[in-house]
Specification:
seven-stranded mixed beta sheet, Rossmann fold, 44% helix, alpha/beta, 2 domains
Length: 372
């Protein structure tokens, strides 16, 4: 046995979550390479994720493991090197600047439409579903799209903007069901190409464009799962752009993952392998950015639904892996498993939230009626 002292140190940290090394519970971890202990203690979450990708350890239920670890805040006990430098860089450098805007598209959303087609629902919605009355993923995503339309009060003849439109799922739904004209923008070429094809024949235009370059007026603006890529240095710029694009009597719906505390940086492993430059906003950061520009009409929190959504995505990914693995290797599979299941655990532990926030420019006359 190499590194017995380091193993004892790691076990003492895991004791806080009642997780054992080489134990028999589904959330216990099995370690195959003893250098794992040194790597995790030195590199924190980055070392934990990379060593999993490398096959140094495993776990029967990664989602349960992360739920327990995050619920007990064990990450505070293993910071890993370079955290202070990362925070300083985030204060100095705008990682989500216009020059870097398309990096997330190239690094994440352009890695293959077939991957997302195999993982997502039939409409290819890559945001949290709404499971209130849903029995499966398709129903949950359609319920979410309908919920957004109702919250925005869509009516025939409106022109709407979808910032971060993905493959056009919301614009297509709104055009089909509510007879609106829609413009969707994305920083992913693959999304723009497939989205245009999927919306063919509808009054929908999908554009490959950064939000800072939009210069039109719309009756309503929606943003589903894009604000996580905006970055703290740009929150005010983003909200100001939405205000400029929205007609005086229009509504803006912001659907975003949220953090319990204000941050400058994201988890190091997520930043390196999944969403480069992403930072989850806090409630206070959103409120500060919207102050003086919008009236807050409604704030709906349903983060527990993201746990169920992520588990459904992982089930689809796992079920369809045989048809996908010709384009991706085994290390990619372990990376993607880790991504989906660790995120599910974070929502289950209530460390991440999901918010739908409705804003108006001048306040809805007579008051806004919330939709659930």
């Amino acid at each position: 046995m190499k590194y017995p002292t380091l193993k004892r140190t790691v076990q003492s940290i895991l004791d806080g979550a009642e997780i054992n090394i080489n134990g028999d519970k589904p959330q216990d971890i099995r370690v195959y390479d003893d250098i794992f202990y040194q790597r995790v203690l030195a590199e924190g979450s980055l070392g934990l994720g990379e060593s999993y990708m490398d096959g140094w350890w495993d776990c029967e239920r990664l989602d349960d493991f992360f739920c327990e670890v995050l619920r007990e805040d064990l990450g505070k006990k293993v910071k890993g090197r370079g955290i202070i430098w990362d925070v300083l860089k985030a204060k100095i450098i705008n990682r989500q600047s216009k020059l870097r805007a398309f990096e997330i598209g190239e690094r994440h959303y352009d890695i293959g439409n077939e991957l997302f087609q195999g993982m997502l629902d039939k409409r290819m919605v890559y945001t949290c579903g709404y499971w209130k009355d849903a029995k499966n993923l398709d129903e949950a995503q359609e319920s979410k799209l309908e919920l957004v339309c109702k919250k925005m009060g869509l009516k025939s003849g409106m022109k709407i903007l979808d910032i971060g439109c993905g493959w056009g799922s919301f614009t297509k739904y709104a055009a089909e069901k509510y007879d609106v004209e829609a413009v969707g923008i994305t920083i992913s070429k693959e999304q723009a190409d497939l989205g245009t094809e999927l919306c063919k024949g509808l009054p929908v235009e999908i554009r490959l464009k950064d939000y800072r370059d939009v210069d039109e007026k719309f009756d309503a603006v929606v943003s589903l799962g894009m604000f996580e890529h905006v970055g703290p240095k740009n929150y005010k710029t983003y909200i100001k752009k939405v205000s400029d694009c929205l007609k005086d009597n229009g509504l803006f719906l912001l659907h975003t993952i949220g953090a319990n505390n204000s941050k400058k940086i994201n988890d190091k492993w997520i930043d390196k392998y999944i969403f480069p430059g992403s930072v989850l906003p806090s409630a206070s950061q959103i409120a500060d950015a919207s102050e003086g520009l919008f009236v807050l009409e409604d704030w709906h929190s349903f983060g527990v639904d993201y746990d169920r959504t992520l588990m459904a995505w992982h089930n689809n990914f796992d079920k369809n892996w045989d048809s996908l693995k010709g384009n991706y290797d085994e290390r990619f599979k372990r990376m993607w498993d880790y991504y989906l299941l660790s995120c599910a655990g974070s929502f289950r532990a209530r460390k991440n939230q999901l918010w739908q926030i409705v804003f108006s420019k001048n306040g809805v006359e007579g008051g806004y009626e919330p939709v659930r």
